[in-house]
RNA sequence: GCGCCCAUGGCUCAAUUGGACAGAGUGUCGGACUACGGAUCCGAAGGUUGGGGGUUCGACUCCUCCUGGGCGCGCCA
């Protein structure tokens, strides 16, 4: 709203601008909202910023009364900032609107129905999920919720690597375990998988198939072992995600890309465009002409497809499905892969900006400051499931959501556990529960309390500095929301929630909400209801629970 | 060797994408209601943002060099 106001003023002065920065100052003395546009324009207009600011303010003050009624003061400060201060009546009105039309007030429709595909986790179905996957899951989930709320048509997709060497190795490992179990010792494949799960799956096969496959060459029963094993693993993965509260719309099978002819089709499509050639008995993708540092093999000399072949086809297929935007959430160890996938987009004639790859940095799992050794193949492993079991789903998610995704994360199990009773997530949830308990005490239902007389409640008694601070925080939620959407950074919501809780708790401590004074109680309850509304919304986006009791 | 990412109080992290005096939590020290939930609240100490140089009205943020750490660099997946 302020953005539009300033923008209108600026363009009214004959200056071209399509975007103005509006921010919430750190210091209260610097107004409620603020813009540095005049500073930015100083260079272009070759005039002192304060003079420009003055002109902008003058232009704003010329505007229709209705447009500027929200502000008490609009003034220049410092080197040329323009600071706005809300007037109370405006704030009260906004608070009332927040209660009355929550859906409308909580989000900003920036997506306008654009279709976005968010692909995340996509772990090989060869073993259980680890914490790193959990980080990707938490981020993907929150980002999906965030964009969906912002009016995007979001689809969440998990890409299943059910073709190729890794699942074969898994099948072979289970085969070895099966044989060993039935007293026909058999060496595990060199880089095979071990562990509880592998043995459990082997056990299941032993009991259903008996010794039918004893003495059989692996190559003659490979499909059976592979299929059974990876499906079991996939179930395990789904279960873990389920208990983590993360769900997908599509599960895209890599094998189906081969069987459905999409791999061949994808390659043909690029060949038609002149980006595929044969050399040394192999088939190559000319990615070096499209921003990658070298060309990539798609079909090896021995006729086998490389891993990249199916991934290439997968992305061609994604494009074909008609999304406006593709988002991939990858572990940072795949960063070297970005240029070649972007090259696929370019080859298909798309702007590479249609694909955003968000890298999730590595998670180092520690216990008491010491690294926990993890080896998937050896089966020594602390899984996501273990971590959730040890410190809880909400706390685990919160740890992921309180930092930006592209920085390394030290995840200390002991610290997390020790902290869990006083974890920041509870601080936020506690605020929510407290408000709920207020309404319970008051014997009223939060959603219906004011429904018939919402307009008759006098909010002007919400005069305390703390109350105004809370109301401003609530009213400015959409700014945080929009920033989070624009930057694709759900963690901003996390910090906002902590800040909101951090002004509510002291307030609650200092002032009494349920008083003898009826109108005052009504007003305070209305404000608390709004806090609760925003907390609930933020928690929902982050995929966290909003408990009414703790 | 080349490329990408990171470095912020003791510890774990933010900082509105170049904005005003760098903020939280945790830890440490000291305090608080016989009323709405003490998973709360109030106060204190703690910083040359890894180091040097540069760009400009203004730098944690951009450029450059250096130091230290992580990850990549297959006709593996």
Could you list some keywords that capture this structure?
single chain, 550 residues, alpha/beta, Gyrase A, domain 2, Isoleucyl-tRNA Synthetase, Domain 1, Rossmann fold, five-stranded parallel sheet, three-stranded antiparallel sheet, 51% helix
Describe this structure as you would to a colleague.
The two termini are 38 Å apart. The mean pLDDT is 90. The chain has 550 residues and is α/β, with parallel strands linked by helices. Strands 6-5-4-10-11 form a five-stranded parallel β-sheet, with helices on both faces. Strands 1-3-2 form a three-stranded antiparallel β-sheet. It has a three-stranded antiparallel β-sheet with strand order 7-8-9. 51% of the residues lie in helices and 13% in strands. It is built from 22 helices and 14 strands. It is globular. The chain has four domains: 85 residues, Arginyl tRNA synthetase N-terminal domain (Gyrase A, domain 2), CATH 3.30.1360; 139 residues, Isoleucyl-tRNA Synthetase, Domain 1; 159 residues, Rossmann fold; 78 residues, no CATH class. α15 crosses α16. A hairpin with a 2-residue loop joins β7 and β8. The chain binds one RNA strand of 77 nucleotides through α2, α8, β9, β14 and α18.
């Amino acid at each position: 709203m302020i953005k539009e106001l300033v923008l209108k003023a600026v363009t009214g002065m004959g200056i071209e601008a399509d975007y103005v920065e509006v921010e919430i100052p750190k210091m209260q003395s610097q107004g409620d909202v603020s813009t540095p546009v005049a500073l930015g324009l100083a260079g272009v207009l070759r005039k002192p910023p304060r003079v420009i600011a003055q002109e902008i303010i003058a232009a704003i003050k010329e505007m229709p009364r209705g447009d500027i009624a929200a502000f008490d003061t609009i003034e220049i400060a410092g080197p040329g900032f323009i600071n706005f201060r809300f007037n109370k009546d405006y704030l009260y009105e906004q608070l009332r609107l927040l209660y009355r039309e929550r859906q409308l007030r909580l989000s900003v429709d920036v997506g306008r129905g654009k279709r976005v595909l968010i692909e995340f986790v996509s772990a090989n179905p060869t073993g259980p999920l680890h914490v790193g996957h959990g980080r990707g899951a938490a981020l993907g989930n929150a980002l999906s919720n965030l964009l969906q709320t912002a009016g995007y048509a979001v689809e969440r997709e998990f890409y299943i690597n059910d073709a190729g060497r890794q699942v074969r190795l898994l099948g072979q490992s289970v085969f070895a375990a099966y044989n060993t179990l039935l007293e026909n010792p058999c060496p595990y494949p060199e880089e095979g998988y071990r562990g509880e799960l592998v043995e459990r799956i082997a056990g299941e096969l032993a009991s259903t198939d008996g010794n039918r496959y004893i003495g059989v060459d692996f190559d003659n029963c490979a499909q059976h072992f592979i299929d059974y094993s990876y499906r079991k693993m996939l179930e395990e993965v789904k279960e873990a995600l389920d208990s983590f509260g993360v769900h997908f719309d599509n599960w895209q099978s890599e094998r189906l890309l081969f069987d459905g002819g999409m791999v061949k089709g994808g390659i043909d499509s690029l060949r038609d465009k002149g980006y595929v050639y044969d050399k040394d008995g192999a088939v190559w993708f000319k990615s070096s002409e499209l921003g990658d540092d070298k060309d990539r093999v798609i079909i090896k000399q021995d006729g086998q497809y490389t891993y990249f072949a199916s991934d290439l086809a997968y992305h061609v297929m994604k494009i074909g499905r008609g999304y406006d935007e593709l988002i991939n959430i990858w572990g940072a160890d795949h960063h070297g892969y970005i240029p070649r996938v972007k090259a696929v987009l370019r080859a298909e004639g798309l702007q590479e900006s249609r694909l955003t790859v968000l890298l999730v940095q590595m998670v180092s799992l520690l216990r008491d400051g010491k690294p926990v050794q993890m080896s998937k193949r050896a089966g020594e492993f602390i899984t996501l499931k273990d971590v959730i079991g040890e410190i809880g789903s909400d706390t685990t998610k919160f740890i992921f959501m309180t930092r930006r995704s592209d920085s390394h994360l030290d995840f200390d199990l002991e610290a997390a556990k020790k902290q869990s009773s006083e974890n920041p997530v509870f601080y936020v949830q506690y605020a929510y529960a407290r408000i709920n308990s207020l309404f319970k005490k008051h014997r009223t239902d939060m959603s219906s309390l004011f429904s018939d007389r919402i307009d008759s409640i006098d909010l002007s008694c919400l005069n305390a500095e703390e109350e105004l601070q809370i109301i401003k925080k609530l009213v400015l939620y959409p700014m945080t929301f929009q920033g989070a959407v624009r930057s694709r950074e759900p963690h901003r919501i996390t910090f906002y929630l902590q800040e909101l809780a951090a002004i509510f708790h002291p307030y609650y401590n200092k002032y009494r909400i349920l008083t003898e004074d009826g109108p005052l109680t009504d007003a305070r309850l209305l404000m608390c209801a709004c806090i609760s509304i925003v907390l609930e919304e933020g928690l929902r986006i982050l995929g966290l629970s909003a408990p009414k009791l703790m």
